[in-house]
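Response to reviewer comment R2.3. The reviewers asked that we include at least one raw input/output pair. We reproduce the pair for Cytochrome P450 here without editing.
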Amino acid sequence: MTAISGPAAASAFDPFGAEHRDDPYPAYAVLRDEAPCAHLDRYGVWLISRYDDVAAVLRDWETFSSATGAGLEPVATPEEGGVILSTDPPDHTRVRRAVARDFTPKAIGALEPRVRELVGRALEVALAEGQVDWIDQVAQPVPTTVMAELMGYPDRHRQEYCR
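Raw output as returned:
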C-alpha cells in the first residue's frame, strides 16, 4: 500500500489504484485520521472520509452543490436536462416527488420478473459463448432496458436510449 501521511500525500491518493484494490480499508483509516477532508488532485474532487462530515455535507446542498456532478465522471448540465443525482433543491425535490411513486418497494418489486428474464437471457448467451463481459452484457443493458421500458420508450428507440 502507498503510504499516506497528511493532506499533501492524501491529495495524491488514488482510490482506484491497484495498490488499494484488494484491501482499501487501511488507506481509508489513515485518511480518516490524518486527512479527513482532502482534495484528490488526479480527479479534481474533494474526498470527505468521516461519517459525520459526509452527513453534514449531504445536508448542506447550498454550500456543497451536486450541480456539477456527484461522482468522478462528468454529468449532464442542468441546461442539458441534468440527472436527479446532480440536481440541488428545489429542482431535486420537485423531480424526486414526481418519480417517488415509481420507486416504492412495491413498484420495484413488480419489476423483478422482468429483471430476472433479462438477466436469464444474458446468462444464456454467456453460457452459449463460454464467457461473459459482465458490464457489456448484464450491468449496462439490464437496468437501462428496464428504465427505457418504465419511461415508455418504443422498442425501436431503446438501443438509442441504452447507448
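The chain has two domains: 6-88, 105-162. The first strand starts at residue 37 and ends at 40. Further pairs are available on request from the corresponding author.
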